[in-house]
Structure formats: structure tokens, C-alpha cells
Automatic annotation (TrEMBL):
This is [FeFe] hydrogenase H-cluster maturation GTPase HydF. GO terms for molecular function: GTP binding. Residues 287-404 form the Hydrogen maturase F tetramerization domain. Residues 11-126 form the G domain. Residues 186-284 form the Hydrogen maturase F dimerization domain. CDD domains: Era_like. GO terms for biological process: tRNA methylation; tRNA wobble uridine modification. The keyword Aminoacyl-tRNA synthetase does not apply. Keywords: GTP-binding, Nucleotide-binding. The keyword Nucleotide-binding applies. Coiled coil: none annotated. Pfam families: HydF_dimer, HydF_tetramer, MMR_HSR1.
Length: 423
């Protein structure tokens, strides 16, 4: 469970006003003191993450958020952070206090959930207080009943303090979790039992010491899970390793930075693609990235490109996102194209300022967040392409990198014809 990557876990986030018992509830659900609990409103500031096992789902990521009714300048910043969490939320828990009731804040959250296609469960917390404050609660309960009927919401009566219906909430979470919150395989549908897959991994200054990067490790495991063999090599050895095989490999998967070199070493009859292309469909939507590729054809001097990287690793002198790709684009298209860079959880609101977005392979993001980013870009009218596909296009081999995916290849070739017609 602990070895499951954060980006491959369904993300369950808890939302609500301050002091409705969000942190207490998440502590009970996880059976741990994950979040700081206090009667003082606004105790939770930044989102708090906790990896846990939730049967029968398996490994999940629980997220505690700040109150949506926070106040002041810092409060506004916390609310913004809370809403950013919705990008990655596969399932939401909306916590309402039986004492405070529900109103505009909850209505706004429900609206956001629906706009973002986030399934949610309503938990009516602190029901133990209704027994001692029954007379004072009549008007609140009447308004709450009207609110729930207005939105046609079912809810679970619970008490985090008294541990009432905690198991029931876990059961409903398992029932309501979307089945498509992550793809089931990286490349299992491309291979058969007994096939050999050659994986080309760089061992250079940017490679982590003593280990492989996450996409490479996950791909190896996926190959083994589908009873195929993984042969791992460096780009300088790929041809000699393939020549040693009794039968040619089913497919070669390369690090995107080695696309140009490897494509010359691997025979045309052998399928070739990149880790980034595999993750374009594993984490997001391959066809969306293919549509974004045609925007590269239209880049010109004065355009602005956003480079978005999900991780916050220490950058090398020849960093792929901040140095290599910009240099290739400057060389191939124009030195007057501008670049902005964001990393980690950053994803700007002013997407319409950019001509195209270049996104990393997203191994550190869950699929929901990648799809949310793609949707925001689509709303802003900005095409998105990921690193690997962008590099393949820059080196003129995107057609070959898409050969393992016939529908995506057909879409790209159709787009190519349209571009030629326009030019």
C-alpha cells in the first residue's frame, strides 16, 4: 500500500465550513490523528494529505481542506488553495454541521462539484448535539431540510466525536468512487503474453542517483503484470541489445530526450514510442494532446508558451523543461518565442495569455488533475501537448511515436492534412 504512487491513488477530499468537524471526521476515517483538531475555527490552513488503505478500494489519498468560509486576506488565500484541491478530487465529502446548518457556502461548493463533474457525499456531522440543543435547533433543522430538498441531496447522519456511522461513510465512499479515476494499464493492451519490450532509459546528469524515475518503474511493473519481458538498456546499447534477441521486440519505449537517437537505431518494422506518450493516455487523454500537436505548427515570433511541470525536482543546467525544449523550439521555429514556467501544484488562471501549453508526463499528478487541467485549457481555448509528443514533433518523428495507437495516429495525420491545406 505504501509503495503505491501518489498519482495513482484515488483522491478523496473533505470540504465544508470552518468548525464543522472536517478534521475530526478525516481522523476517524483514517484511524489516525492526521489533522490538527481544535474548537477554534480556522485550525486547518493548508491542505493536509494522508495516504491510507480504504477497503475495498485499496490505496487512496485523503485530503483535509481549510474552511470554505475563511475570512481576511489569509483566509482568501486558504480558500483559493481549497478550490485548487478540486482539480485533483475524484470524490468529495461535503461536511455540514447539524448545529450550523447549510446555506450559501455549501450551495457554492455543490455548484463547483457539479461543474467539475466531481461526485460527492453529504455528511451531516455533530448529530450528537441535537439531543441537548433540540429547542434551539428547530429553525436550523428546518432550513437544513429545505436546503437538502432543494438540491435533492441524500445525506449520512454522523458524529465524528461519538464515532457514529463512520463505517457507513467508508462503505458509501467505496460505492461512489468513480471506476474511471485511473486507467488500469500503462501498456498492457499493447502487448501479449511472452512479448519482449525494450525500455531505453537515460543514465546521465539528470537521472536520479541509484534508481530509475517513476514512469520507468511503473512501466516495468505493468509489463511484468501482463506476463511479458522487459529489457532495460541505455540509448547507446539499444541496437546491440535488440540484435541479441532471438525474436525482435514487440515494441521499444524510450525516454523522450533520446527519441531522435533511438529512432535511427530501431528498425522501422519495430514499434517505437516514448514513456511520455504512454503517460499522455495513462494520465490524461491522448487525442487531446494530439490535437495540441498541430498548434506547434502555428507557433511564431512573439507567441507565449506555458511550460507546466508537475514535480519540483532540482533543475540541472540542461533541464528538459526550462532549457532543452525552449532551445529546440527557438532553433526550429523562432528565437522570439517567449516561455513561462510553473511547477508543482501551480497552474495559472490566465491560460488565455498563451498560444500553447507544454505539459510534463504528469507522473506525480493523479488522472483527475490532468483531466481538470486539460478542461481548463480547453475552456480558455489553449491547446496542450506534453513533453514527449512535443519532442517527437520537433524531431519529425511524431508519426512513428503514435504508430502503436492507430486512432491517435489517424487523428494526427488528418490534422496534418488540414494544416497543409491551410498553409
Amino acid at each position: 500500500m505504501n509503495s503505491t504512487a501518489k498519482g495513482d491513488r484515488p483522491h478523496i477530499a473533505v470540504f465544508g465550513r470552518r468548525n464543522v468537524g472536517k478534521s475530526s471526521l478525516i481522523n476517524k476515517l483514517t484511524n489516525q490523528k492526521l489533522a490538527l483538531v481544535s474548537s477554534q475555527p480556522g485550525t486547518t490552513t493548508d491542505p493536509v494529505y494522508k495516504a491510507m488503505e480504504l477497503l475495498p478500494i485499496g490505496p487512496v489519498m485523503m485530503i483535509d481542506t481549510a474552511g470554505i468560509d475563511d475570512q481576511g486576506e489569509l483566509g482568501e488565500m486558504r480558500i483559493k488553495k481549497t478550490k485548487e484541491i478540486m482539480r485533483k478530487t475524484d470524490l468529495a465529502l461535503l461536511v455540514i454541521s447539524a448545529v450550523q446548518g447549510a446555506g450559501e457556502f455549501e450551495a457554492d461548493l455543490i455548484k463547483e462539484f457539479k461543474e467539475r463533474d466531481i461526485p460527492f457525499i453529504v455528511v451531516l456531522n455533530k448529530i450528537e448535539l441535537l439531543e441537548t440543543e433540540r429547542a434551539e435547533q428547530r429553525s436550523v433543522l428546518k432550513e437544513l431540510d429545505q436546503f437538502l430538498k432543494k438540491f435533492k441531496l441524500e445525506f449520512i447522519k454522523a458524529s465524528a466525536d461519538q464515532e457514529i456511522n463512520i463505517d457507513l461513510i467508508r462503505e458509501v465512499i467505496a460505492e461512489e468512487m468513480p471506476e474511471d479515476c485511473s486507467r488500469q494499464t500503462i501498456m498492457g493492451d499493447l502487448i501479449n503474453t511472452g512479448d519482449t519490450v525494450v525500455l531505453v532509459t537515460p543514465i546521465d546528469s539528470a537521472a536520479p542517483k541509484g534508481r530509475l524515475i517513476l514512469p520507468q518503474v511503473q512501466t516495468i511493473r505493468d509489463i511484468l503484470d501482463h506476463d511479458a519481458a522487459a529489457l532495460v538498456t541505455k540509448k547507446t546499447k539499444v541496437k546491440s541489445e535488440i540484435d541479441k534477441l532471438k525474436n525482435p521486440p514487440k515494441i521499444v519505449v524510450t525516454d523522450s530526450q533520446a527519441f531522435e537517437t533511438v529512432s535511427k537505431e530501431v528498425a522501422e518494422e519495430i514499434l517505437l514510442t516514448g514513456f511520455s506518450v504512454l503517460f499522455a493516455r495513462y494520465k490524461g487523454d491522448l487525442k487531446t494532446f494530439v490535437r495540441g500537436a498541430k498548434a506547434m505548427e502555428k507557433l511564431k515570433a512573439g507567441d507565449k508558451v506555458l511550460v507546466a511541470e508537475a514535480c519540483t525536482h532540482r533543475r540541472q543546467q540542461d533541464d528538459i523543461g526550462t532549457v532543452k525544449i525552449p532551445n529546440w523550439i527557438h532553433s526550429k521555429i523562432s528565437p522570439e518565442i517567449e516561455f513561462d514556467h510553473v511547477s508543482g501544484r501551480e497552474f495559472p488562471d490566465n491560460l488565455e495569455d498563451y498560444t500553447v501549453i507544454l505539459h510534463c508526463g504528469s507522473c506525480m499528478l493523479n488522472r483527475k488533475e490532468v483531466l481538470s487541467r486539460l478542461k481548463e485549457a480547453e475552456t480558455a481555448g489553449v491547446p496542450v501537448i506534453n513533453y514527449g509528443m512535443g519532442i517527437a514533433w520537433l524531431h519529425g518523428i511524431l508519426d512513428r511515436a503514435l504508430e502503436p495507437f492507430p486512432e491517435a495516429l489517424e487523428l494526427w495525420q488528418q490534422d496534418q492534412e488540414k494544416i497543409v491545406g491551410v498553409i
